[in-house]
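User: quick one, fold this
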Amino acid sequence: MDGFAQALCFFCAMTASAPQPQSPQGTLDIWVTHEMLGRNTHLLRLSTTDRILDGNAARDRRLHAYAGNFASQTCQGGFDLAPAERASWPLAGPLYARQYAFRCR
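Assistant:
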């Protein structure tokens, strides 16, 4: 097969494949997945690990602070940040993950 046909086959295979899921990116002990929901609307999925003498309240504060910092850097100005947890999900401990939605102003 000549080079042009090989390139064409590769291009067709790449454009015909399904989109790959976004893999989380880590910063220290917090893993982040960021999705755009619409114009100026974002969803953050955060997860973390244990630290020595770490409880639910400390992990919750750390995740919330990270979400606020991420929203501030993303929006370059004002933003509205809110938890994006479903009310139907059971509240079970320990807490290792949170979702936040934010809208840039």
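User: anything notable?
Assistant: Residues 56-75 form the longest helix (20 residues).
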